[in-house]
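Students often ask why inverse folding is considered easier than folding. One informal answer: many sequences map to the same fold, so there is more than one right answer. In these notes we will look at a single instance of the problem. The structure comes first.
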């Protein structure tokens, strides 16, 4: 109720005629419609408070509006551009990050199937504008505010001018999902109700400004994408990639992104 009152009051003040303020030590004059009036300075202060409140509410609303399936890049759904766009998305391929990439395939007379995990390959990727952030900005404690899987399937039909696409959000969660902490050398995870993500307390590196690589044995590897938004939301993506070909019929490309969205805890 208080929040609703503040919003309605702010909107009321914003609806008043345009005014010009001239501030003096003890009073304030306003000019509107070429007429002069006196106004108590407390009114000015209240107007500023309400305006600032509306601004804060707007910023909070924008900060919370980051959906799970935003900030992604897709191929265009026409036969002229789809293949080129997909090749561009996968043109930056790190052999180090994909050291433990695993693919399994099956082929018979009527179909071909291939599935890859621990991979950076896919026909849908994190927006590249989030890469190459300052690594020191990682240091600190991050709260997980959203988790889920984004499954995108594109169907390619021979001789078709446009292709089909489906997008599903799976296992979406928000609320108390735990924390991830970074020092300049180590990552430490404390996740809640996210059992499929392994707990980690290991050394890490950022490879090529986009991959979170964890030390395993004597080397670093990891195809997870890591990005930072302008309003300092940290995004971590793990990909699996599947190709299903039904000969002389269609091809399905399916990318599944397991995504964590985090916000920094100010201590």
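Output (designed amino acids):
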């Amino acid at each position: 109720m208080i929040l609703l009152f503040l919003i309605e009051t702010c909107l009321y003040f914003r609806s008043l005629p345009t005014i010009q303020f001239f501030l003096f030590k003890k009073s304030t004059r306003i000019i509107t419609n070429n007429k002069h009036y006196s106004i108590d300075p407390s009114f000015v202060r209240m107007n500023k408070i309400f305006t600032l409140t509306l601004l804060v509410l707007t910023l909070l609303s924008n900060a919370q509006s980051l959906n799970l399936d935003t900030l992604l890049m897709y191929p265009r759904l026409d036969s002229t551009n789809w293949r080129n766009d997909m090749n561009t998305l996968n043109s930056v391929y790190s052999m180090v990050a994909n050291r433990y990439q695993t693919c399994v395939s099956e082929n018979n007379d009527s179909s071909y199937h291939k599935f890859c995990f621990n991979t950076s390959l896919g026909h849908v990727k994190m927006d590249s504008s989030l890469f190459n952030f300052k690594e020191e900005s990682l240091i600190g404690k991050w709260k997980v505010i959203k988790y889920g899987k984004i499954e995108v399937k594109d169907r390619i039909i021979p001789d078709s001018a446009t292709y089909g696409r489906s997008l599903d959000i799976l296992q979406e969660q928000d609320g108390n999902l735990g924390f991830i902490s970074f020092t300049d050398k180590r990552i430490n995870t404390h996740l809640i109700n996210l059992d499929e993500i392994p707990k980690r307390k290991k050394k890490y590196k950022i490879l090529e400004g986009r991959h979170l690589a964890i030390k395993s044995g004597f080397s670093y590897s990891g195809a997870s994408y890591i990005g930072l938004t302008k309003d300092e939301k940290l995004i971590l993506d793990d990909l699996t990639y599947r190709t299903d070909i039904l000969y002389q019929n269609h091809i399905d490309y399916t990318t599944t992104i397991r995504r964590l969205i985090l916000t920094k805890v100010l201590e």
